Amino acid sequence: MKKVFLDFGACVGESIQMFNEIWPDSSQFEIHSFEALPDNFKELSETFGNWKNITLHQSVVYTADTKVKFHNATKYSSSIRSDKITGGVNSDKYITVSSIDIAKFITDNFSKNDYIIMKMDIEGAEYEILPHLLNTNVLQDYVNELYGEWHLGKLKNLKKEVHDNLVTELKSYGFNMVNWSAINRKIG
User: Fold this and answer.
1) pLDDT of 107-129, one tens digit each?
2) Residue 81 and which of 1, 34, 47, 148 are 20 to 30 A apart at CA?
3) Helices then strands (H, E): number in the chain?
4) How many CB atoms lie under 10 A from the CB of residue 188?
5) Burial, 11: exposed, middle or buried (Cβ in 10 Å; 0-12, 13-18, 19+)?
6) CATH annotation of 3-187
7) Residue 86 in this model has a pLDDT that exceeds 80
């Protein structure tokens, strides 16, 4: 059995640092951090590129292995969502980045017996990624703990009903996405 920490939206490594500070057995975890913004990834690589238990992926997590538009705003607010209305996201300003089908990545690399902690701060893409993980049964079958940040109210095209239905579906499988704020060093 492996212990795994999946870090979706790594930025420059604040969540890795927080994970290492809070989890006493963090050194026993295999850490996979995903970050697509080139400047952030460069800084992430300079800080954590030589750590033996950390693998860095210069990509976004998504529902397919493909290329996607990544709306480049600030260090902390870039998103695949063109309808994000906070953080300076402009639907006309983007770069094209690689994406990873995160459900496939998990099933190809881990076992149902592994202990997986998943953290996502993906600027609204949780409304695409979580349904994908639920529809493929990956969340239910592989993930043990779920942390992240909801972006309700920050997306122009997201209805509260969609958010509420997703939260209800997560709860039906025993998940409550616990708030994770690496910048504030706070969980819950």
Assistant:
1) 999 999 999 999 999 988 999 99
2) 47
3) 6, 10
4) 7
5) buried
6) 3.40.50
7) no
CA distance 178 to 67: 30
109 three-class SS: helix
Compute the 3-state secondary structure of the chain and give helix, strand, coil in percent, each to the nearest 5. Answer: 30, 30, 40
If phi > 0 it is left, if psi is from -120 to 50 it is alpha, else beta; for residue 187 that is: beta
Q: What's the pTM?
A: 0.94
Give the dihedral sign, CA 180/184/187/188: negative
**In this structure, which amino acid lies at residue 159?**
K
The string of pLDDT tens digits covering residues 176-187 is: 999 999 888 889
